[in-house]
Design a protein that fits this description.
Elements lengths: L17 E10 L2 E11 L4 E5 L6 H8 L7 E6 L2 E2 L9 E4 L13 H7 L12 H13 L15 H14 L4 E5 L7 H16 L3 E5 L12 E6 L2 E6 L2 H4 L14 H5 L9
Parallel strand pairs: 3-8, 3-9, 6-7, 7-8
Antiparallel strand pairs: 1-2, 1-4, 4-5, 9-10
Helix pairs in contact: 2-4, 3-4, 4-5
Amino acid sequence: MKDTDRVGDSSREDRPVIELRGATASLGGRPVLRGIDLTVRPGEVVALLGANGSGKSTAVRSVIGQVPLTGGELALFGTPFRRFKEWARIGYVPQRTTAAGGVPATVREVVTAGRLARTKLGILRKADRAAVHRALELVGMADRLKDSVNALSGGQHQRVLIARALAGEPDLLIMDEPMAGVDLASQEVLASALREQVGRGTTVLLVLHELGPLEPLIDRAVVLRDGCVVHDGPPPEAVGQHALPGHDHVHPHADAAAEPLRTGLLS
């Protein structure tokens, strides 16, 4: 491989926000990612789709360093992962079932925590407080800022987790099943908040079980099956129902994909 072909060597103008090449990862000694390639460019909204156990969540947790790669290469914003330090540029929303629960904190305190990486010595300035308030307004929770998070419904709790990520004004927003177990009203609020964020130029990588109300925002869908990429292109509905997760559609390059993301962000 030539140096100019290596991950992270793109010019600053067009370098991908996320670039995975030949990525492999295991959980408990069991291979989960089997050599996936994934490129997400600035301003794109990319959905990771696939059946349970296909490797979607492992892929995004690898991107943020929660699951180390066993092989392949990863670069973030054009920087090889081992040298990447700009974690404040990334907002992460974990699955609600794996997010920390039972924390005796108010809505405002939880969302403010998402802003700390942008502060100096943890001291909130006027701009920081404004960012927190804006994030709460985006998800329709500004009127609940003094409430305990333990008093919220599942959908409201998910809104708070998303507001926490948005408060940091990330360049890249990664969300793992943001609509799972969320009522329809909250789904619509979250879709509207994401639409606002995308309009500001944020790059988004989403793990989804189905597109739902987020479908109009999706630029590209990457479908995983058994840890391999079997589709990378238009959302499956645009190419036929046979491409939906769980069906037997196989991308022409699936076989090739089968041969060939440090803990810095935690929920």
